[in-house]
Hints:
Number of domains: 1
Radius of gyration: 16 Å
Helix content: 10-25%
Strand content: 35-45%
Largest sheet: 9 strands, mixed
CATH architecture: Roll
CATH class: Mainly Beta
Order of helices and strands: EHEEEEHEEHEEH
Structural class: alpha+beta
Distance between the termini: 24 Å
Number of helices: 4
Number of strands: 9
CATH topology: Pnp Oxidase, Chain A
Amino acid sequence: MSDLVRPSDQEARKIARGLLQEARYAALGTIQTEGLPLVTRIAFGLCPLGHPISLISSLSMHAQALKANAAASLMVGEPKEKGDPLAHPRLTVQCHARFIARSSAEHAELAEHYLSTHPKAKLYIGFGDFFFVGFDVQSGFLNGGFGRAFSFSPADLEVTSPSARESNAQI
């Protein structure tokens, strides 16, 4: 790790977890079968246990890429209306995609939860080509603005439940 990237601390964990909790979409980085990188915008949320998820179509380029290579990265954090966009925090999460079968009890639970945070998904959540992907976090990197870079372990980024979210605000 570069001397410019610091290990996580309480403030950095609070910022990173807040970015995950607030995000409703993310940039998803995948590797296409030709070996070229692909970045797309996806709907983003957290499952009831606080792990990153998305509802995606099997027809999309990123779904095809994830099926061939489960390694991925997610970036959350949007610039505010004012100020330099590069001064606002953004979090990159390195992860592995896990496909959740539509016929599973987990899919049904995720659908109910997801619709509570993404009500417009009601229009397409039942389409046969849409399914949930869980993202198993491997590591993370927070660019908190100029001169504020932090690395994270999976445990640093855990947001486990609504009650844990409140306690995370204090960490």
